[in-house]
Amino acid sequence: MRTLFNAEMSDLAGDLITMSRHVESAITRASEALLTQNVELAQAVIADDVKLDEIERLVDERCVLLIAQQQPVGLDLRTIISSLRISASLERMGDLAQHIAEAARRAFPDSAVPAGHAEIFAGMTEAAKKAANELVLLLEQRDLNTAAGIVSDDDTLDALHSESYKTLLAEGYTGSVQETLDIALLARFFERFGDHAVAVSRQIVYLVTGDHSGSRAVF
Fold it and tell me: Distances in Å between the alpha carbon of 96 and those of 15, 26, 188?
């Protein structure tokens, strides 16, 4: 019975890694679509989001069955509960990548990012892609140094998010209503992407160290 349980737990960990790789691919392609007006790439990100949703559903079902059938305690129970929270954050990160791709598609053949904000969003895309890459490594290796790197990426996204808002309030700003909405929403999407990456990293820190002081999920 224990052998079967261990195999199920291994499959659960594998599902989360697969989800993180989907997220990494989604934000990488959505970022490129946004910065290069690649509508085909944007459409691919939008269409592929259903795959991430399906894996999340399978993870949820696996966790419920493990709890119902095995009645785990201690570390096993913590791992299952954390897996539910991690899958929810990863699914939301996929949704945010989809929203970015949808913005790129809507603006095509123009850019959803005004020229004056290109540098800010170039920085946000790089920080988001770095965080997504580190999430994959974190779920594979559970290295706390990687978790710290994700927090640093989120700090970068927070700073750029604030900077983007300041430009909208700056004297002399002349952007249209649509440009203003695009800047505000896209900056928010990237900022929330970083928040969810941190939420995942905190769950891993909790599993590795047992410290749950910073493990609250982000919604």
Answer: 20, 9, 9
Check: CB of residue 138 under 8 Å from CB of residue 147: yes
Neighbour-count burial for 76-112, b at 16+ CB within 10 Å, e otherwise = bebbbbbbbbbbbbbbbbbbbbbbbbbbbbebbeebb
Could you count the other beta carbons within 10 Å of the beta carbon of residue 148?
A: 12
Q: Give a yes or no: residue 215 inside a domain.
A: no
Q: What is the mean pLDDT of residues 185-203?
A: 97
Cβ burial, residue 171 (10 Å; 0-12/13-18/19+): exposed
For residue 214, being part of any structural domain is answered with no
CATH code, 94? 1.20.58.220
User: Within 10 A of 168 (CB to CB), how many other CB atoms are there?
Assistant: 14
d(CA 198, CA 166): 24
Q: What's the rounded mean pLDDT across residues 15-20?
A: 97
pLDDT (tens digit, 9 = 90+) per residue, 117-136? 999 999 999 999 999 999 99
CA-to-CA distance for 103 and 156, rounded, in angstroms? Answer: 22
Residue 122: domain span: 2-209
pTM, whole model, 2 decimals? 0.92
- 85 domain-assigned: yes
